[in-house]
Each structure stands twice: as C-alpha cells, then as structure tokens.
C-alpha cells in the first residue's frame, strides 16, 4: 500500500524567512506532484516532478525529487503572506500498484505572518 | 488552463435524498477521478475511470456510484444521502502527466 507522509503538518513562519516542507513516500514511483489549496477552494497544480533529480522553480517556490530516497522537498525562499495556504504532495499510485489515481499526503498548513 | 467543470458547487440536502454530482471535461482525457476531502484534510480517491464504460473503486470505500457513458462526463450518484456523506467532492481528469482538478462540490447532508 502506497503511503505518503508530509512534515511538518503545521507551519507558522515569518515573512522573509526560508523553510522546507518534506514529502516521503513508501513505494517506487516516478511521478510526484505538489498542489496548493486555499481555504474552500480546489487544488492548484504547482509542480510535476517526473524523474530522479528533477528540480523545478516558480517564484519563491522550488521543488525537488530524489526517487532513490523516496523524498521530495518544497522549499520556500523569503516567504511572503500570499504564500499562506495548504500544500499537498501526491504520488501517482499506478507504478506503486493498487488503485490508479493519486495518493495524497495530509497536507502542510502554512501560515506566514508579517 | 484546465477545462473541468463541476455542478452544483454547493448543495444542502436532507437525509435520504438521491443526488447526482456532475463532472465534465473538455480536454478529451480518458482518465477521470473522484476524490473526497473533509475540510483541512487530505484527499482520498473514491472512484476512477480509464475511459467509456470503465469504472473502478478507489482506495476509500464509498457508498456512491459512478458511470462513464461519454468520455467527457463522469457523474457521481448517492442513492440515499446521509450526514456522513457531508464533505467536499473533487473531480479530476488526467492527461499523460498532469492531473487537473475541478472546482469541487461542497455537499452538506442535514
């Protein structure tokens, strides 16, 4: 059974600081996704990581994937209030067996304070 | 920009009613999914489809049913709604890499 673990689950940080969210998964998969969700909204796709060593950056967010360690990170640089949201990582269950579709972590609730 | 639509966006309904949540996409994707999400929690896959006439149950057991008669349409039905069905339901479709989510239906069963 594919399991996806995120940490931390809650994070309160100050504007201007850097921080990293971690996502570990339990079985082999070559596809890892990061999504953002604002309260009461749907999911917004941030990054799709498709291979070992993949690194993608968009603004103050950078995601990386290490398939050998089964670990992805989402790094926030010089945080601003607008980045406050819940961030989910998800793994494609197809290559890990079981049902198709994505298996999600519990999400990291990020609050950025002035 | 993903074109995936869900209706209704919000629904409050009494116990025992039959409801259908609509989902449609205009991208021609074969794979479609339904996820259930309680507020502030992770998403759980409840149904998926590989294409017309294909439906499968997901990891989370659900009393709902789905159908896939047309590629673009993947409705979810609850024959008899109960308060335990109160949740947000998110529909998604998938190309080769990306999975796109609809805006969701927030269901409250009283």
Layout of secondary structure:
The complex is a heterodimer of chains A (114) and B (110).
Chain A lengths: L3 E4 L2 E5 L4 E7 L6 E6 L5 E7 L5 E4 L2 E6 L4 E6 L8 E8 L9 E3 L3 E6 L1
Parallel strand pairs in A: 2-11
Antiparallel strand pairs in A: 1-3, 3-8, 4-5, 4-9, 6-7, 7-8, 9-10, 9-11
Chain B lengths: L3 E4 L2 E4 L5 E7 L5 E7 L5 E7 L6 E2 L7 E2 L9 E3 L8 E8 L4 E3 L3 E5 L1
Parallel strand pairs in B: 2-11
Antiparallel strand pairs in B: 1-3, 3-8, 4-5, 4-9, 5-6, 7-8, 9-10, 9-11
DSSP strand count of chain B: 11
Q: Tell the overall outline of chain B.
A: globular
Rg from Cα of chain A: 14 Å
The major pleated sheet of chain A works out as: 6 strands, mixed
Biggest interface and which pair forms it? Answer: A-B, 25 and 26 residues
Overall mean pLDDT of chain B stands at 93
Helix content of chain A: under 10%
Structure classification of chain A: mainly beta
**Distance between the ends of chain A:** 41 Å
Task: Sketch the topology of chain B as an H/E string, one letter per element.
Answer: EEEEEEEEEEE
Describe this structure in words.
The complex is a heterodimer of chains A (114) and B (110). By secondary structure, chain A is mostly beta strands. Chain A has no helices and eleven strands. Chain A has strands spanning 4-7, 10-14, 19-25, 32-37, 43-49, 55-58, 61-66, 71-76, 85-92, 102-104, 108-113. Chain A is globular. Chain A starts with a strand and ends with a strand. Chain B is mainly β and 110 residues long. Chain B has strands at residues 4-7, 10-13, 19-25, 31-37, 43-49, 56-57, 65-66, 76-78, 87-94, 99-101, 105-109. Classes of the chains: A mainly beta (114), B mainly beta (110). Chain A binds chain B through residues 31, 33, 35, 40-43, 45, 48, 50, 86, 88, 90, 93, 98-107, 109, and chain B through 31, 33, 35, 40-45, 48, 50, 56-59, 90, 92, 97-104, 106.
């Amino acid at each position: 059974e594919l399991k996806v673990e995120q940490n931390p689950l809650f994070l309160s940080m100050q504007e201007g600081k850097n921080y990293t969210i971690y996502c570990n998964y339990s079985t082999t998969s070559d596809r890892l996704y990061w999504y953002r969700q604002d309260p009461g909204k749907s999911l917004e796709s941030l990054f799709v990581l498709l291979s070992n060593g993949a690194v993608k950056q968009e603004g103050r967010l950078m995601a990386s994937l290490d398939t050998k360690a089964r670990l992805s990170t989402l790094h926030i640089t010089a945080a601003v209030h607008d980045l406050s949201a819940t961030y989910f990582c998800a793994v494609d269950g197809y290559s890990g067996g079981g049902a198709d579709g994505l298996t999600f972590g519990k999400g990291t609730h990020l609050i950025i304070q002035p | 920009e993903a074109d995936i639509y869900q209706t209704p966006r919000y629904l409050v309904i009494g116990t025992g009613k039959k409801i259908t949540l609509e989902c449609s996409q205009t991208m021609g994707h074969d794979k479609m999914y339904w996820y259930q999400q309680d507020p502030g929690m992770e998403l759980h896959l409840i149904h998926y489809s590989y294409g017309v006439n294909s439906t499968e149950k997901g990891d989370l057991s659900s009393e709902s049913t789905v159908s896939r008669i047309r590629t673009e349409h993947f409705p979810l039905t609850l024959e008899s709604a109960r308060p335990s069905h109160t949740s947000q339901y998110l529909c998604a479709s998938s190309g080769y890499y990306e999975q796109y989510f609809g805006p969701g239906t927030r269901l409250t069963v009283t």
